Fold this protein.
Amino acid sequence: MTSDVNAVKAAVDAAFRDEWGRVVATLIRTTGDWDLAEECAQDAFALALQRWPRDGIPGRPGAWLTTAARNRAIDVLRRKAVGAAKLREVAAMSYEPSPPAADSDESGVPDDRLRLIFTCCHPALSLEARVALTLRTLAGLTTAEIARAFLSSEPTMAKRLVRAKQKIQNAGIPYRVPPAHLLPERTPGVLGVLYLLFNEGYSATAGADLVRQNLCAEAIRLARVLATLMPDEAEATGLLALMLLHDARRTARLDAHGDLVTLEDQDRGKWDAAEISEGVGLLNGALRRGQPGPYQVQAAIAACHATAPTAADTDWAQIAGLYEQLARFLPTPVVELNHAVAVGMAQGPAAGLPLVAALEASGKLAGYHLLPATRADLLRRLGHRGEAAVAYREALGLASTDAERRFLSRRLAETGGTA
């Protein structure tokens, strides 16, 4: 039995997306060796590319890959002459997840991927290390890909990943989901890493590309895993809903030249209706649990935008109210700025300007290009072209992506000003 080469490649690519994290997580639990787990998982996928064209695509690719990775791990451990007990444990490893041992995991959640997420996102690691390790072990991104995501060199990122793994080993960070009584304080950190990952993909902090779809896709995929593994965690569902509602507008955010298109000018026919429908459904399900949180509120704001038939139909008064609720969970200056924008849209630009002025006076957002950009937009809408031009120049000097700089330059030109 043989399979078409293209079909095999597509099957291996799909298995990589769906099974990489599971295979690596299972091997880490069994061997306790992160590098060995990644090496054996890579070997298993390489073997699939060799064997599946000849033998056919297996009915359960994940089981095949896990078995291949396990066999590879046994060979490596034998060469290293490790203890017989460890070899027996790896040899007995099966694809189906088994219930966790009572002394190793008190959460009652058996999936190895969830253990891996919580281990990667342990508070003892720096935030950057958490994101990088999550991308490496759960998403299967290469060190070079992660380095590009962080605008860093590959050798530098490789050292950071090594240090993160060493810290897990040296600090004795347990490979487990925290016990139930610690979940409330640890889960927000996990959600925060996935949220940061999605945000970096959706609105890159620097560089030529405003949107990096590969990061968005990985964040959504991991959020799906987390929401599936923690079905009673309303905020995990809310985060997934938030990502989907934002991602639904992705293709309309840039024009054919890669230039930024504002929300009010986007072609809503390009929005992904299926993603919007799924996001709204997930949000409604999360809200019914009666466990409100910041991701659910942000998803509700995104839903207001995504379900408005036209920009003029947007319920800005409701959005302003939702930002007030969000400020109770996240009392940050960025939330205050977004509230000012919503007020300016709901009540007119003159109502938003004092809120922006108060933020500027506080100095909380010094150096943040969207603060002067917001002031500029409010002034432009009021017809104060000269003052708007000054604010646009300030924002232009602070913007860090090419797409944003081009957008601000166009706005500046519309006021009659020059950079």
